[in-house]
Design brief:
There is one protein chain. By secondary structure, this protein is mainly α. It has a domain of 79 residues. 88% of the residues lie in helices and 0% in strands. Helix 1 runs antiparallel to helix 2. It is rod-shaped.
Length: 144
């Protein structure tokens, strides 16, 4: 006995095929947008890391400069103090040194504070922009 091969073909209705194609296209567009946003966020984090590194180095350098200035002021004070013979002159020198150091420390703290604020702003700016762009762009594929 010979087997007869029968073929049955099914035709998907055009409307169903169009809906399926549109669904695939929308899924592809959503994936492409998510991928684009992910790459943008990685770039934003990289920019933030670069800004952090740069500003952190500025703070380190300023801290070293401040330490050097303060140590030099102390050495100068000690040299002058050893040269003094009169106790009242020592009291006067000590008061002058304390006043000058207080003013210097206030200025130094202000400089470090400014650098710290810049570090915070420049480090968070790329991340903030990336997040805002992500949320703004994320809704576009679904709005269509």
């Amino acid at each position: 006995m010979k087997k007869v091969k029968t073929e049955t073909t099914y035709e998907v209705p055009r409307k169903s095929a169009d809906i399926a194609q549109k669904s695939v296209d929308q899924a592809q567009a959503a994936f492409d947008k998510a991928s684009e946003l992910a790459h943008g966020n990685v770039q934003a984090l990289d920019a933030a890391a670069g800004a952090f590194k740069s500003r952190a180095l500025d703070i380190q350098m300023k801290s070293m400069e401040i330490a050097q200035t303060n140590v030099n002021a102390i050495f100068s004070f000690v040299r002058q103090a050893f040269a003094i013979k009169d106790p009242m002159a020592f009291v006067s020198l000590n008061q002058e040194f304390a006043r000058d150091q207080f003013a210097a420390l206030s200025k130094q703290a202000s400089e470090l504070s400014e650098l710290s604020i810049l570090l915070a702003k420049e480090t968070t700016r790329p991340v903030q922009q990336g997040v805002m762009k992500s949320f703004g762009d994320w809704t576009k594929p679904f709005a269509a």
